[in-house]
Amino acid sequence: MMTESAPPATTVNSAQDDFSQQAGESQPGLFAEFLDFLVNNKAWWLTPIIVVLSLVGSLLVFASGVAAPFIYALF
């Protein structure tokens, strides 16, 4: 009959130190995190969708403000 032994104390301490170090680091921004996602998952097909959605969103924001007559003149 085999029993499990507890991991050595040095492994637990080093894991806690690593966790504490990563918790103390600054968090990446939204754009950096999204770019990291695209690179690691090779999801470059999402890029045109995000670009078009951001352009439409910026058009909606600017169309409701003072710049509306200038935007409509472009189209």
Write out key terms for the chains shown:
mainly alpha, 75 residues, elongated, single chain, 71% helix
Write up this protein.
By secondary structure, the chain is mainly α. Helices cover 71% and strands 0% of the residues. The protein has four helices and no strands. It is elongated and about 75 Å long. It starts with 8 loop residues before the first helix and ends with a helix. The model has no long low-confidence stretch (mean pLDDT 79).
How would you classify the helix and strand content by structural class?
mainly alpha
Helix tally equals: 4
Q: Which band does the percent of strand residues land in? A: under 5%
Shape: elongated
- Uncertain residue ranges: none
Query: What is the percent of helical residues?
Result: over 70%
Number of strands: 0
Output mean pLDDT: 79
**Radius of gyration using CA atoms only:** 25 Å
Layout of SSEs?
Layout: H1 9-24, H2 30-41, H3 46-63, H4 68-74
In short:
The protein has 4 helices and no strands. It is an all-alpha fold. The mean pLDDT is about 80.
